[in-house]
Each structure stands twice: as structure tokens, then as C-alpha cells.
Design a protein that fits this description.
By secondary structure, the chain is an all-alpha fold. It has helices spanning 2-6, 11-16, 21-38. This is Trans-aconitate 2-methyltransferase. It comes from Angustibacter aerolatus.
């Protein structure tokens, strides 16, 4: 989960803490622990409790 959110929702926080490496590390460690508790790993992976829609689009030309 942490890897998934680190490229999107976590980016503004880590960017804001860029000059405070110790504080950033502690925040990410604490956040990761909460994510592990909220989304425990199962033998089949991690089940996310929301619907996801995947879309593929093409610009111009025939399909």
C-alpha cells in the first residue's frame, strides 16, 4: 500500500518534509504501520475495499 500511495497522495507530504529527513522518515514509518493495520496482507494479496475502474483510451486513428 505504501508503494502505491507514495507516488500520488503521499507525495505532497514527503515533498514538504524534503529538508527534514528524520521527520519525513518517522512520518512515513508511522504511516506505513497504519496502512499495514488497515490493509493487512493476505495470502492472495491486499484487498482494497473500493471499486476500481480501469480505462484504456486512444487518440486518433482506427482501433
Amino acid at each position: 500500500m505504501l508503494t502505491w500511495v507514495s507516488g500520488t497522495g503521499l507525495r505532497p507530504v514527503t515533498d514538504a518534509l524534503a529538508d527534514q529527513t528524520d521527520l519525513r522518515r518517522r512520518f512515513v514509518d508511522a504511516y506505513a504501520a497504519r496502512l499495514r493495520a488497515a490493509y493487512p496482507r493476505r495470502p492472495w494479496g491486499t484487498l482494497l475495499p473500493f471499486r476500481r475502474v480501469f480505462v484504456v483510451a486512444r487518440v486518433g486513428g482506427a482501433a
